[in-house]
Amino acid sequence: MITLALVIALLAVTVVCVAIGERVHLPYPILMLIASSAMASIPGLPHLVIDSHLILPLLLPPLLFATAQQTSWTVFRYRWRTLLFLAVGMTAVTAALVAGAVWMMVPGIALPLAIMVGAMVAPPDPIAVEAVAGPAKMPRRLVSMLQTEGLFNDAVAIVLFTAALHALSRGERIGWGLIPEFLIGAAIAVLVGLLLGFLYRLGTRVVTTTAARTAMSVVVPFAAYMLAEEVHASGVIAVVVTALETKRRARVEDSEARISRATFWDVANLLVTGIAFGLMGMQLRDVVVAEGWAVLDYLPLAATVCVLVIAVRAIGMVLIRPVAHIDSGDLLGWKDSLVLTWCGMRGLATLALALAIPVVDETGAAIENRNLMIIVAASVLVVTLVPTGLGLGTLLRALRLQDDGTVTALEIAELTARARGAALRAIEERFGGTGELTEKQMTALRDRFRSLRKELDTTTMAQEVIAADGSGVAGTSGGASAATDRHQRELARAKFMRRGREVMVAAQTVGLDAARAEVLDARSEKGVDPHAADAVLRQLDLQMLAAPPATGHAGGHGVGRH
After folding, report:
1. Which residues contact 113 (CB under 8 A, 6 or more apart)?
2. Which residue numbers delimit the Cation/H+ exchanger transmembrane domain (predicted)?
3. Cα distances (Å, whole numbers) of residue 270 to 3, 36, 190, 206, 275
4. In this structure, are 429 and 340 located in the same domain?
5. Span 531-559, mean pLDDT?
6. Of 279, 266, 289, 326, nearest to 62 (Cα)?
7. Number of structural domains found in the chain
8. Is 447 in the same domain as 371?
9. What is the pTM of this model?
10. Which residues, in sequence order, are bridge partners of residue 366?
C-alpha cells in the first residue's frame, strides 16, 4: 500500500510540476527531479524502489512507441545518412570519448564501468526536446530531425551499456565483435517489429470495441520490446518499427480508435516521464546523503563529461552539414546546426540507464562507483536540460528562426485542399447523375468541404438545404378538405426532408472517407510532415464522429461509417 501511495504521489506531483513549468517556462522533468529529491528528504517517508531489471522494459516501450508514431517510414528513408551518422556514429563516438575520460580520471575504475557511463550520457532524447520545442517555437523541420535521431540512438546506447554490464559481471571482454552482434540484433528486431505490427493490424480487425483497441496499443510496445530482448535483439528498434508499421497501415474507418489512442498516449507520456524523473530524484537524494561532502569530489569529472558531450555534439553537427538534408531538400545551414547542437538534451534514456544500474552484479558483489555514475548522469541531465529549456527561445529569436506557424499552416492548408478535392470527387462519382442530390444540396456539400476544419453539423445543414427545396413539394387533390390537405402536405414535407437528410449524411460520409484516405496516403509521401498530416486527419476524424451515422437510402446504396 505504501508503494502504491508513493506512485500516486509522484503522479500528483507531476501534474503540479507541469503547471508550474508552463508558467515559468522550465521543462517539467527538471522540476520533477527537484521535487522528488525534496520528497525523499521527508523524515520517515519510505523510498520507492523498483528492480533495476524492470526499469528499461517499464519506461522505454510506451514513450518510444508514442514518439515513433509521430513520424513515418518515408522520413527515415529520406534521412538515412543523417540517421546513421547521428544515431549510430555520434552516439558511439560520444560513449567512447566519455568512457576514455572517466577511465583516465578515476583511478582504478574498471573499463566496463567507464563504458557504462559513456553509454548512459551518449544519446540525446526526443521526448526532452518536445518538452521545450513547442513553447520556444522551434521550426518543425528541426524538431522532426531531432525526433528521428532520438528514436534509434537509444538502441546503440543500450547495446553498449548491456555489453559493458555483462563484461563487468561475467568477466567478458568488449571487442569488435559487438558490431556484427548489434547489426544482427537490429535485423532481428526489425523482423520482430514487422511481426508485431502485422498482429496488431490483425487484432484491430477482430476487436471492434474502441476501449479494447486502445488497450491493444498499450500492450503491443511492451510485447515488442520483451520479445526482441528474449531473442537477444534490440527492444528499442523493435518498438520503433512496430510503431511505424502500425501507423503506416492505419485504416480510414478507425476514427474513434485513433482519437482515443492519441488522448491516452498524451496522458501516459506525461505521467511515465514524471515517474521516471521522480525515481531519479529519489536516487540522487540517496546518493547525496550516502556520500555527503564527498559528492564535491565527483564534480570535476561530471563537468568534464558535460563538456565532452556538448563538444562532440557541436563537432558532429558541423561535420554532418554536407550530407544532412532538411525537408525542403536544402542542406543544413549554420543556424540549424547551432540549434541542433543546443538541443542535444539528455533525457529518458540517460535516466533509465542510470536507474538500471544494479546495486550488485550477477555474482552478488557490490558494484563499485555506482554513486559516481548516478552523479555524472544527473549532472549531464541538468546541464543539457535546464540551460536549453531556459535559453532555447532566446537563441531562436536571436537567430530569427522562431516558427510563427506559417509553414505548418501552409502544409495543413495544402493537405486540407487535397482532402477537399478527394471528397468532392468521391461525391461526384457516387452521386453525380443519379438524381439523388439536388443542385442546392450539391452546392451545400461543396461549401461544406471548403471548410473542413469546422465542426460538422450535418442535420442542421441538411434541414436548411431541404427547407430551401421544400417549395417544390406537390400539393394534394383539390377535393380533399383543408385539414386533410394540410396534414398530407406536412407528411410529404417531413418525408422529403428525412429523405434529404439521409442522402446528405450518406454523401458527406462518402466525402469524409475519401478525404481521410487522401490524407493517410499523403502522410507517407516525401516532403509531407507527418505532424501536419496527423493534425488534418484528427480534424477529419472528429468531424466524422460528430456526424450522425449514415443509413441506407434509395437505390440500394447504403453508405455507413464502417
Report:
1. 102, 164, 168, 367, 368, 369, 373
2. 13-397
3. 20, 16, 27, 30, 9
4. no
5. 66
6. 266
7. 2
8. no
9. 0.78
10. 360
